[in-house]
Amino acid sequence: MKKWLKPPELRIGEGNEEERHATWLEAFFDLIFVAVISELAHTLNQDVSLSGFLGFLLLFVAVWWSWIGATFYANLFDTDDLGHRLLTALQMIAVAALAVNVHNGLNESSAGFALSYTSIRILLVIEYLRAGRHVVVARPLTNRIIKGSGIAALLWLISVFVPLPLRFGLWTLALVVDFGTMMTAGESVHVELAPHTSHLPERFGLFTMIVLGESVLAVVHGVAKQHWNVSSAISAVFGMSIAFSLWWVYFDNLGGSAIQAARTCRRIGAYQIWVYMHLPLVIGLTATGVGVEHVVSSNPNLALPLLDRWLICASLSLCLLTLGVIYLTGLSINAKLRCKARATYRFGAAAIILIFAVAGASLSPVKLIGLIAGVCTVQIILDLRQGSLVYKQV
User: Fold this and answer.
1) How far is CA 222 from CA 42, 280, 292, in A?
2) Maximum mean pLDDT: which of 7-21, 104-118, 133-147, 374-388
């Protein structure tokens, strides 16, 4: 019985830095976000326009931040006790409600979305109240998060009674409060309570895998909308190769060096960049999947429509750009040349794909996705070549 009644305890610091993996509960929690990301992608799929993308962006930021809150708590304090399991179960119900309300989250379901998100923040506050009570050394962090999340939850709750579109202004303000709560925390808080160096990268990797899975599903949906022919088959292969290339260049460079830099070199900036750059990365990955679906399901005999062309090119460029920035955060821990070189490859690829968006008006869907897939494949080749050169130097 003692196992189920354990209080939260600090899971980082001396004696707690051995290899650590996500728990089965965390994997189950992530499963709920598969539904949320799918609904977000469907929302963007229905409105491929600037206003549609901005709405998708607002909803995505809220969803990602709800995942971040639970992930960072588990990283620091998870003891897998009865209290944590029950609170996580309640959060999963709230996230499921979030998924239900995402589809029309900027219209008739916006009040339901706000109430669902409010519930998630309140449950997180309860988690940190427990942690602050039992882990005295973490109180500067727990008290800060309790105040920030509490204010944000209140703003989300108030927004339910505010008419559209003013409601979205309160949402934006609440998200600014949430982000600012962590970003403006003192250096001592970030250094002394820096996340676990193996657990957190794995958690971010698992969320990235969820988003990449949506890209694979997008290819299937795109092909299903077409009469099966050679063009659709080729486009589908190119679409899958893009997803595979993004998987390769992300996971071959995934690690906790930025977190370690925060611990040993007090490089808080690198650690924060590493964390927050994952937001535009997963936004770009999700939007890229929607773009691939539009390309695969388009008429192969006509040039790709302007909005569809910009969606896939701009989204993929965003992915590559943020990947390059993420690489640069680990420069204080080994492999400086490798990180700089691979960041340069990503920046160059992002620029080339943006050129396709600007100058590719006459390109058919198959030609455009083929060129994009080619650029992504070259990224793998360059990484392999650069890695072999570094190995020879060593």
Assistant:
1) 12, 24, 8
2) 104-118
pTM across the whole model: 0.91
C-alpha triplet 275, 278, 283: angle, nearest 5°:
150
CA distances (Å), origin 315, targets 12, 180, 263: 36, 26, 33
Q: Nearest CA to 62 among 117, 139, 143?
A: 117
Note the residue count of the chain.
394
Q: What percentage of the chain exceeds 90 in pLDDT?
A: 49
Q: How far apart are CA 75 and CA 314, in angstroms?
A: 33
Q: pLDDT-derived band of residue 391, with 50, 70 and 90 as boundaries?
A: very low
Average pLDDT over residues 210-223: 82
Structure tokens at 344: 């340069």
Token pair recorded at residue 104? 């029309």
- The pLDDT, as a whole number, for residue 196 is 64
Confidence of residue 191 (pLDDT cuts 50, 70, 90): low
**Among the listed ranges 11-15, 181-185, 270-274, which one has the minimum average pLDDT value?**
11-15
Residue (of 72, 77, 114, 68) closest to 94 by Cα position:
114
